[in-house]
Amino acid sequence: MYELNRILLRNFGPRDARYEDVPLDFSGVGAEVETASLIPDAGHVAQRPAPASLVMLQNGGGKGVLLTGITCTTIPFHHQDLETLRNFTISMAQPSHVVLEWADARTGRLLVTAQVLAPERDGTMQRLFYSFHPCAALDADRLPFHREGHWTPYEDYCTELRDWKERVEALELHLLDGQEKWEKHQRGLGLQPELFDVQRRMNAKESDAAAAFTTNTANAFVEWLLRKATDDDQYTELGTAFHGYAAAHDQRAQWERERQFAVEMHRACEGVAGLHGLHSKHAGAAHRAEKDLTHLTSAVRARHTQLSTTESDRNAALKQTHSVLETAKGTCVLAQARVWHVQMYAHTLQLGEIYAQQETAQKEKQEAQRQSAAWASVPIALRHAQAQDDNNRAQLALVEAERTAAPYIRALDTAAAALRAGYTRAEHEARETIRAHQRVTGETQREIGQWRTRSNELLTAAGDARAESRILQEQTDAFVLRLGAARELDLLAPQESAADAAARAQDDARHGEQLLQEANQARKSVKTERDRAQTALSKQQRLAWSARGAATAAAEETSRLRARAEDIRSNPLCGELLEAGSDELGADDALRWLDDHADALQQLAERRAGGLETTLTHKRIDLQNDQTLLALLDTSEGLLPAAAEVRDLCEKLSGHGIHAVPGWQWMHDNVPTSERQQVISTHPDLVGGIIVGGLDGLDTARTLVERLRPLPSAAVTVGTGERMLSTHTASDAGRFVVEPSPALHDEEAAAHERVAVHTCITELTREVNSLGQRITAAGDLLRQIANWHDACGIRPGSELLGQLEVLEAAAGEAESKLAEARTAAGEQEAALQGAEEECEARAEGLKAAHKTAEDLARLAEGEFAADQAQARIKVLTGEKDARENELESLAGQIGQADEEVVRLARAIESAEQAAEGYVRSREEITSTSQAEQVHDDSGAPLLPLPSLQHRYLQAQDELRGVEVGEDQQMRAATAQKALLASQAEWDKVPEPVRGLAMAHSRDGRAGDAVQRDAILRALTVEIDSYDTSLQGLRDQASRLAERARNLEPAVLPNDEDAAVWTPATVAEARKLEAKAAGELGTAQREERLAQDAFNTARRNQTSSTKDLAAFDRVLPMLETAVHGLTVPPDQPPYDGSAEAATSAARQAVAAHTTCRDEALQTERKLEGSVSRLKEVPCDVRFERLDIPLRTQISALESHHIPAMAATWTNALASRIAALTSDLEGMAKARETLASHLSGHVTDLLQRLDQASRFSAFPEGDAPWSGQKFLTIRYKKPDLPALTAQMHESIDALAGNQRTRNLKGIDVVMRCLLAAVPRGFTAEVMKPNASQRLDRVPVEEMSRVFSGGQELTGAILLYCALAALRTSPGPRSRTRNGGLLLLDNPIGRANAGYLVDIQMEMAAALGIQLIYTTGLSDEDVTSRFPMRIQLRNDAEARSGLSLIRLEDQVRNALIPTPRIAPDQDAAEPAGLLTSARLYRKQGDTQ
């Protein structure tokens, strides 16, 4: 394992903390390298780096930059903070460098891992990672950072590295630009990027390393610990095996479902085959009964046909007489319609004459009524005309009077507008006066507020001064009391001041410090000797533990390998391959026996497996060919129909290199059109067959066909083109016939062939299964041997046994030396205890001296404060008098101002009352808007308000003298009212009557009421006569309409007939009515004669129908029975009676029904069996099965299934045997996977035990010596229960879609948690100064531990994790656990005992500690063997932080002049310099 030797930072960091040229050197302080030579080779060191180092830099100075540089170089893929790196770099011309130099803790060989990085102009980051082993040609100090005093640009630097890689192979230089590849490369070097990722989480926040170990449960902590301590790659093979099993898991379930399907189908097919034979027997009897029934039905049908013919003849006679009857009835109906038609039109003509007379009388009546209404409205028209005339005269008089008063109204309106404007002006003046007074009042009040504020300030200052004086006086009095008490205690001489006494006490304290320093030096000397003894004890203890652990691990490994060897030797196949008996195999130690025979056994097993695989392949090919042949011989559905399989044979022949085309195609391409008919007639077999090229091709095709034996479902002829073109057909030259399938022509031959093929298939299946089992056994043996080889590695078994004996002897010797080292360490511990007691006594004296000095120093400060208080009291007294005088002056000014405010308030109130009075007066006066507009537009100055008021009153008086009188206005109103009343009366007169009434009003008779009454009486008599005439006409029309409604509607045959029988006048109607009555009588006599002939024909037809009806009752019974059957048509008519036919029909139907029912019952049973058979493929359990048989059965119609049931029964039996074999093989794979998982789970549980052992403190006399800081407890599962649990876990994970794609490590972790169902209990010891044993659950660390204790616990857990990950074996306790880099852990854990615990555990596990801090606690920093002090300086001249080095070093390392080649690049703004300090054992200071 590597330890960090040096860090080189070049041009890296932000502007305020740039590491421009900072080397951090941790080398040469640790223990010597065990395998180092006296003079180390180039690229090697003889001494390890410092075991614990402290990098010191003030807070905010750039510690985080250092951590970022290391993290982004070790784990760039996990870091992923490009924005920060952009801020830490400058440009491509001035790249940044982070170089880490590592030293191998065992060999001292150096390793450099580094990166160069620079930002592009577009913001992208260019990074190159590289590693090499330093040698004489190149090391970290000689990397080409600069060239001719300037930074080497990024591209040039990368080019030079590539040149070094090509020139010097000894460097082992690797260049990588992929971050993930770089981490993988570091893992190959042994740098463990996973541990650096844990450190990154621990350094996420300063002094908060415990956050990386915070978990909610012990199970989560255990899983996290094992994941960090284990590589995922070691479970890749397991993950692949699990994925294969998971992929086949569903197939396994499918196989089980398919096997269950095959078993159920086999049972169902057997039932269907049995019922199929029984159904064939019953179907024959039903067929015979059906034949008798159909013959009887045919005879009855013939007799029925004969009777139907006779009935048809009589029906024809009946139809003829019925036609004559219908014709007579039609003639009678036509004559009746003509009578009704003439009568209807006669009534219509009479009604028309009456309606014309009614219309004339009605018009004359309406004219008389209109004249009567007009004469009745004449008085209203006269009154309306008189009212209009009176109103017109009154309105003319009123308009003349108003025209006279108009000038006086305008004068009053003008005066009112001027007076309103005056009132408005007076209101505005009053408002302005109010605003002026308000402004003066506001200013006065502000002055009063300022004066009062100043008074309050003065009063507050006076109060503060009084309080300050009181406090100062109390301080003075208190100092006098303290001074008196000090003199009483003899701390001061009678005349000595407090300052002199404090100086004297400081001298005494410094003398005590010198004495304590001498005691500490003596204690350190003794402690150094004690540390040497403890170091020797720890070293010897580590050696003893290492030796014992190595011996134990070797013994366990040997036992495990011997057990595996015994398993291999017990395999029966070993004796068979080696041709040895059980006694010969078990005579020697299993490990030595397998070591001697492993190679030979592996070769024999591989040869055996290869031979069996070849044989199995041949057998499977033969089996497939036989199954194909069996399908071709299938006659389950009868003889195969002849099918054209010419194309299939052509493809087979062409596939074997023979040019073959169908005969039709060859004829199309080679025979002229005119000759094709002749060729078809001569060689029809070749036209429908196959043509090959030449006689050689024909012989080759014959040989191939005889070997393949395709058995087509047709007789196919193969010949040559010459044979087709020839006209001779007698000889067989030039052709041959391919043997067709016997299933085409001979069922018995096909059955014999199938039996032979079935026998071959059965034998081949048995041989295939046997070969599969033998191959599986050979494969298992090969896997056992391969696993044994992987476990042994390259070491033979004899070497392992010899190494075990050597390790046991070394362990005993190391344990004896350990006892001697413990005795020496105890003696040094007693000497150290005495020295520490002396130091504690002197420290107590020094503490008392410091306390006295501090008391006197405080007393001297009090003396100085008392003198200052007296001076301050005098100043406060003078300020008090000045404030009192100013307060009196301010009180007088405030009183005068208050009086002025009161006067102004009264003036404002008076002005507001005046303004409101003006507003009220203005509202009492009205004027028109026109007058106000004219007044505003004139611009004339307003007169005083009294003058305006006088003018307004004068205009009112003048208007009163000329205004219109009330009597005149009343006369006009009365005339208008009368007009409105007469207008309302006139509006009630109807509109048509108004004109006629107005015309009658101008008649001379209109003014005489007597004449108007005479005219009205004459019009009334005329209207009554019209009413009497109209009533007579209406009565006559009602009688005619009633007679017309009683007549039936008549429909004549055509328009011509209607025109002849339609009268034009009433006289013509009477003549036509007499003619129609005569024709009606003649038609009625003819209708009676036709009715008698029709009755005779109907009696004859009824007799025939009765005979036919008797056979109609027999025939439906037979027709129902033969429904769906084929009836012969050539039977003679039945010669018996209807009763005999009925008896014979019942007997035939009964026999047919009985036989048919038996057949149907058997058929239903068969259908039920077939339905149950078809339900099996449709069962939800088998819905996901995708096999041809299930698809075929689902798609096949039910009536085809019984004939194929026997064939399916045999095929299903073979499939059941094959599936059983496959499932057994998968069960073996499951067992193997469970075995491997059990082994991995057991290994992980051992690693948990190992983690607890690694966390043990070194042996010693302290209470914690030998105690385990981390304790993980769980119930260890026994092997049978673990194996069972692995089976369950495998099936559960493989059966879940979300977990079947888990990686190998995830599968193992889930199985681990399942193997410990009660979970894990993880406890840690709570760090405390007295080392009291107090254990706390790991999930409660954040709640129970203090900040420093929690951080210390996190560091100890990391140490255990690092040791566990880097441990070479389960029993090893390594001393090279790597590096732990933390950001300011002592900021939280600064107690000395906490730091000692951290360093003690890290030293015990060989873990290098590098801490950063901004504190300078000497008690803590002095505990680190290596301390590096960094300083962040700023240049005052430029205002930037720049590097300050010695001139000669600056010229060598820093570019001169200081001008960056990239003008756009930012100027570096920060500098860190380092001073390296380290302490070696044996130094006194």
UniProtKB/TrEMBL annotation:
- Keyword list, A-Z: Coiled coil
What sections of the sequence does the record tag as coiled-coil? 351-404, 502-536, 804-838, 866-914
* Keyword field contains Coiled coil: yes
| Protein's name according to its UniProt entry | Chromosome segregation ATPase
